[in-house]
Write a structure and sequence with these properties.
The chain is mostly helical. Helices cover 69% and strands 2% of the residues. It is built from 34 helices and two strands. The chain has a two-stranded antiparallel ribbon.
């Protein structure tokens, strides 16, 4: 703010004129405060502040309130620091501004403790924003401490306090405590119900959210937009397409506006349920589409594997003059990773760099995943090393990428580096899937065993089916198929088709009929429509010259109506993704594609390549 010796001549002519024309009956203080309410810029507030200093008018709270409304963090903080004895009002509006306007949640909590240090008792205008701040940075201990203050102050009956308490406990994962606060409300209003339903839905307790919605209806409350959005999120998590469709019907019958809030929730629900046609119908129906709406549809396509449509929609979004944000980029990068659209992924990397969001932890992790799956491991490493902050997902993406690309020793080295340098980001179950996969690719049996044992002994993790699959694959590839089978039999869980498929593939290479027959029996029970199981089984029998058994598998395949799944590939031409299948002669560029493939095949033969057809 301006220094006390500022000259009156610094005041603009416009401001001086406005001050002179004010009603004569108003005092100078009244005139300045009236003008302050009309200020639309920090510069005008500074001019009024200058006049207050010159005329010894001490009204800092009015100035502070206006600066917060103008979202001027620097000047608001500076002004507050110069208030010698800030009162209850000054602290409350500052904590509110830090929480809602600037979302500086940790600083809001600091101001709460500073308020108490000044001997000022927090009240019902303080606690709601403190709880919101605690819930956003997941500091349960501070939230519980503030809750204790609420109990001592007798503010438990205040609606705003209770609702923010429910939200804080929910976001911190303490759904039991949130429900206790909710149940203790004798006269619940719609906000009470919405707070608890939203808490359940947000934290993945979808069934509880739906059940509580039913209780709310039984209690005679009519849902509003907040209710529908939370309920649709729960429907998507449950895959309950029926209930989600019913919600859409109710929204239409009630003539509720399909705004971004409701429309995006509907699109997200249909996307999670796999009903992309209904999601697109809602999307196309919406007259005004903001970035949230576009994100919901792009994410829906990407998550359901319709990557080419996700990329097309991203391009349409840009043509509609809607600027993509971080969530858009994550969805688009996921689509690129699925189909290997490296050129478009590189363009997205450049786009993120130009807008200074390439180091956002979610965007950077998506970039790592995209580059790794598109085969550009050096770019993936570049993005990883440039990240100023890494979380578990970032480390895991890079560890898995190195393992997948046949650089197992680098993957193991990065895992050790994560243990030593990761800080709060310590190895989890996904980290071990990545590093065990590295052992599989390198054939490091002893290292794999040690890592598997360390999961529970050193990290307190319980192995899951993915870890069992890695160990079976590791043993099988090393030729230890009998040990792999023993491992399966001793597992606490039933083996899945991935694990058994890996063992069956090893049996095929080793021509081990004894173990393969046991595996085949389980696989055909689990996946009776998977053509690969029949074909591999037939090949194993044929290699052992058991022609009748080989023919039996082919006949069984036909009897069950199982068709061999054709191979599928994508080609990107001028940022346009083209998909084609083996034997597909209908694609408009199929002749050109075949000519290129034949040319490549001839060049490979010249280089001495001989295809291995034994295992086809």
């Amino acid at each position: 703010m301006l220094k006390p010796k500022a000259s009156p001549r610094l005041i603009s002519r416009h401001f001086t004129s406005a001050l002179a024309t004010y009603q004569p009956q108003l005092t100078l203080t009244g005139k300045l405060l009236s003008l302050l309410k009309q200020c639309s810029s920090t510069k005008l507030v500074q001019q009024i502040h200058s006049q207050m200093i010159i005329n010894a008018i001490d009204k800092p709270n009015f100035l502070l309130h206006r600066l917060i409304d103008l979202k001027d963090f620097d000047n608001a903080s500076l002004l507050f620091s110069h208030i010698q004895y800030p009162n209850e009002y000054a602290f409350n509006i500052m904590i509110r501004g830090l929480t809602t306007t600037w979302q500086k949640f940790n600083l809001a909590i600091e101001f709460y403790y500073q308020m108490k240090d000044f001997g000022i008792r927090p009240n019902n205008f303080t606690y709601p924003f403190v709880f919101i701040a605690c819930g956003n940075v997941l500091v349960l201990n501070h939230g519980q401490g503030a809750h204790s203050g609420v109990l001592k102050s007798g503010l438990c009956a205040d609606g705003h306090v209770r609702h923010s308490l429910i939200t804080m406990y929910s976001r911190c994962g303490e759904l039991g405590s949130a429900r206790k606060v909710f149940d203790e409300i004798s006269e619940k209003d719609l906000v009470s119900w919405n707070s608890m339903i939203s808490g359940y839905s947000r934290m993945g307790y979808a069934r509880d959210a739906v059940a509580l919605f039913g209780d709310m209806r039984d209690a005679g409350f009519e849902p509003d937009e907040m209710t529908w959005v939370s309920l649709l999120g729960a429907c998507g998590d449950l895959g309950d397409l029926g209930l989600g469709s019913w919600v859409e019907g109710f929204v239409v019958e009630s003539e509720i506006e399909f705004n971004s809030f409701v429309g995006s929730a509907l699109i997200g629900m249909y996307g999670k349920c796999g009903d992309l046609s209904s999601a697109r119908r809602v999307f196309d129906r919406m007259k005004k589409k903001d970035v949230v709406t576009w994100n919901a549809m792009i994410t829906g396509y990407a998550q359901n594997g319709v990557s080419d449509e996700a990329i097309r929609l991203f391009n349409s979004m840009r043509k509609s003059s809607v600027n993509p944000d971080k969530i858009t980029l994550v969805g688009a990068l996921s689509a690129c990773a699925s189909i290997g659209a490296l050129d478009f992924g590189k363009w997205l990397d450049t786009y993120a760099s130009e807008r200074c969001i390439q180091n956002d932890i979610y965007v950077a992790t998506a970039l790592i995943d995209m580059y790794a799956k598109c085969g550009s491991l050096d770019n993936a490493l570049r993005v990883f090393e440039d990240m100023p902050q890494k979380n578990e997902v970032s480390w895991n993406a890079m560890i898995s990428a190195l393992a997948f690309h046949g650089r197992p020793h680098e993957s193991l080295s990065l895992f050790k580096r994560m243990c030593n340098e990761g800080g709060a980001a310590q190895p989890n179950d996904i980290s071990f899937v990545g590093v065990l996969s590295a052992c599989v690719h390198a054939g490091l049996v002893d290292e794999g065993r040690q890592l598997y044992d360390s999961m529970s002994s050193s990290f307190g993790l319980v192995p899951k089916i993915e870890h069992y699959s890695c160990m079976v694959d590791l043993l099988a590839r090393a030729g230890l198929v009998h040990e792999a089978w023993d491992f399966i039999e001793k597992m606490p869980e039933r083996p899945d088709e991935v694990m058994l498929g890996a063992l069956l593939g090893a049996c095929q290479k080793l021509r081990n009929v004894v173990i393969s027959e046991r595996v085949m029996q389980l696989l055909l029970e689990m996946e009776p429509l998977n053509s690969g199981n029949y074909i591999i089984s037939s090949k194993i029998f044929a290699n052992m010259k058991r022609w009748d058994d080989a023919a039996r598998m082919r006949v069984l395949m036909k009897q069950r109506g199982v068709a061999k799944t054709p191979g599928c590939s994508w080609v990107v031409i001028e940022n346009q993704v083209h998909e084609f299948h083996a034997g597909d002669g209908l694609h408009f560029t199929s002749q050109d594609i075949c000519q290129i493939i034949n040319l490549l095949n001839e060049e490979m033969k010249v280089e001495g390549y001989v295809p291995k057809v034994d295992f086809l």
